[in-house]
Specification:
Blueprint: H1 3-17, E1 60-65, H2 80-89, E2 94-96, E3 102-104, E4 107-111, E5 117-122, H3 136-147, H4 165-170, E6 179-183, E7 186-190, H5 218-222, E8 234-240, E9 244-249, E10 264-269, H6 275-281, E11 286-287, H7 293-300, E12 305-311, E13 314-320, H8 330-338, H9 342-350, E14 356-358, H10 382-391, E15 395-396, E16 402-404, E17 407-408, E18 410-416, H11 420-435, E19 439-445, H12 447-453, H13 462-465, E20 468-474, H14 504-515, H15 519-536, E21 539-552, E22 555-556, E23 574-575
Parallel strand pairs: 1-10, 1-11, 18-19, 18-20
Antiparallel strand pairs: 2-3, 4-5, 5-7, 6-7, 8-9, 9-10, 11-21, 12-21, 13-20, 13-21, 14-21, 15-16, 16-17, 22-23
Helix pairs in contact: 8-10, 9-11, 14-15
Length: 577
């Protein structure tokens, strides 16, 4: 999957929980902060929607959280929370294991010698919850829908690299050449380019061609967003927006040996302010509080709850606008990082150096691609910062500010207010950057406005909109940096490279990294990339953060980790008295 997917989910998470969760592909590595970004499509409630939460039975897993939009369709949902529901109702061709390797879910697969064609063979006996068989035609329908000219969801990256996508999407061809149904159980997908991460595009739930058929009216498809029907182990029983989601176990689930042992899942809307109390009282069994030492300590004091912290597959970042002064000079960007005490930031925000660490490269320390050495941590050093600014020609004047060519060293930092970490970081900078002669202007605004002025702005408008902005980024399992913060090709409106940074050697390495299938060679490529980007700091990696989950001790066989969400354990979870 692509990096694009990842940021969307990241935004949802960073804002609500100040951390990022990943899923089985880029879909649930989806990109992505306080409230989830608006979902694409209409959210329709089931006819049975209630105004009061149904009473949870003892054998129902109770989840707490917020941010659900009610877009229960795997190719239309755009935040992590709706993706949880989709993961339980739908199933994909592939899934991740605990180590981050792709393994079969609905199908096994083979890859052609030229690495461009993936041929999947479905398992025997797969059925949708309405009893109809799931076939290769349903798989083809799912991916053709993403390529359809009328499709306006967030998953286009899953198919736009396939042969024939452009013709099919533009409506100049009725056939999608890159998708071939060979028989009832076999389907082949052919890509234009051999890319290691292509396998990630098959981590999305499969839709029933019969149930979701829309013909020429895509609104017909959207009308079913709140009435999902898949092949998964759960069924949607009830949804009341901003209140609860009730799922019940699909007793007719096709894999009879893996029918869930619990009766269902009740997801209740619980705010960050009340989430710990809800855990302690037993109102909810499982939740993801904001990651900080205070919350960790409080959970550890609860006799009925266990804390589960683990390193997330993502990071927080600060992006510099590099096409105009002052950040068109690398020395200035480096100086700002030396003058930002990120260790103090971690202590202030997370209250523990064990829950976050200083960031150095746009790769996660959980990844095999993360280099073991050669990265500059930019330890807090005001003397070094001043030396670099002097070298860059910014002269300190008697008024305590630096100037160059008659211009004051003024920096405008866009800070969204839905999360605390952005304000903690910029607050520290307000003190230390002033000491090196920077006139820092902090503009507080909501997250969507920050996005509109940066990633979603026309590249020509960005230089006057900001000098610095901060966000979070969630990564997919493969270290492929195509479409990410440093990819010059992602510098268009809506792309993630709002910095304007472009380096031809970096572009060559990004292309080489995604098309090299020898992992030992890829380790070398990404080590070189990491060192270059660590030196250029067009976008500085602020910190790598832990995710914090809490689980009631009555819940057995649930083991969330970097690459596996709680939904992956739904077949094995048991609840005790």
């Amino acid at each position: 999957m692509t990096t694009k997917k990842i940021l969307m989910l990241l935004l949802a998470l960073v804002m609500i929980f100040s951390l990022v969760a990943c899923g089985p592909g880029k879909d649930d590595p989806q990109k992505t902060d306080p409230s989830a970004p608006a979902a694409t499509g209409d959210s329709t409630e089931p006819d049975s929607a209630q105004t009061e939460a149904p009473k949870a039975k003892d054998n129902i897993l109770k989840i707490g959280g917020s941010g659900y939009d009610g877009v229960f369709n795997p190719i239309m949902s755009s935040n992590v929370y709706d993706a949880y529901v989709c993961d339980l109702i739908f199933e994909a061709l592939v899934q991740l294991d605990k180590e981050g390797n792709y393994i079969p879910m609905l199908a096994t697969w083979e890859v052609s010698e030229d690495k461009k064609t993936y041929t999947f063979t479905l398992k025997d006996g797969i059925k949708f919850s309405d009893g109809t068989p799931l076939t290769a035609e349903d798989v083809a329908f799912t991916y053709r829908t993403i390529a359809d000219p009328k499709y306006d969801g967030p998953r286009a990256y899953a198919v736009d690299g396939m042969v024939g996508y452009d013709e099919y999407h533009k409506g100049t061809s009725a056939e999608f050449a890159g998708i071939e149904v060979k028989d009832e159980k076999t389907i082949a997908f052919t890509f234009k380019e051999a890319v290691v991460s292509n396998i990630e595009n098959f981590g999305y739930g499969i839709l029933s061609k019969e149930y979701y058929a829309f013909g020429d009216n895509f609104d017909t498809f959207k009308e079913l967003i709140g009435k999902p029907m898949g092949s998964g182990p759960m069924l949607l029983e009830d949804f009341a927006p901003k209140q609860h989601i009730l799922l019940e176990t699909n007793k007719e689930y096709w894999d009879t040996a893996r029918v869930p042992k619990i009766d269902g899942v009740l997801i209740s809307e619980v705010t960050e302010e009340t989430i710990l109390a809800a855990l302690e009282s037993g109102q909810i069994d499982h939740a993801q509080p904001q990651t900080n030492k205070d919350n960790l300590d409080k959970i550890n004091e609860m006799p009925n709850v266990t804390a589960v912290p683990f390193l997330g597959n993502g990071y927080t970042f600060m992006c510099f606008e590099t096409t105009t002064p002052p950040f068109d000079q690398k020395e200035v960007r480096q100086a700002m990082l030396y003058a930002l005490n990120r260790k103090e930031f971690i202590k202030a925000e997370y209250k523990s150096e064990e829950l976050a660490s200083v960031g150095m490269a746009p790769l996660s320390p959980t990844s095999w691609a993360f280099p073991d050495e050669g990265l500059n941590p930019y330890d807090f050093d005001l003397n070094k910062a001043n030396e670099l600014l002097d070298k860059a020609g910014w002269e300190m004047k008697e008024d305590g500010f630096r100037y160059k060519d008659g211009e004051k060293l003024t920096v405008r930092w866009l800070v969204y207010t839905e999360s605390t970490w952005t304000q903690t970081l910029s607050g520290l900078a307000a003190d230390t950057w002033k000491q090196i002669g920077v006139d820092l202007i902090i503009d507080l605004m909501d997250f969507n406005t920050v996005a509109e002025k940066t990633m979603d702005a026309d590249p020509a408008e960005r230089p006057k909109n900001f000098d610095v902005y901060t966000m979070g980024f969630s990564l997919s399992v493969d270290p492929d940096l195509k479409g990410a913060l440093f990819d010059a090709d992602a510098g268009e409106k809506g792309g993630f490279n709002a910095s304007g940074f472009r380096d031809e050697h970096v572009q060559e390495l990004i292309a080489k990294g995604r098309t090299t299938f020898d992992q030992a060679e890829r380790v070398k490529i990404y080590a070189e990339l990491a060192k270059i980007l660590n030196d250029e700091v067009a976008t500085a990696i602020v910190a790598y953060r832990y995710e914090l989950w809490a689980v009631n001790n009555r819940v057995k066989n649930l083991d969330v980790s970097t690459y596996l969400k709680w939904t992956a354990f739904i077949h094995d979870i048991e609840l005790t008295d």
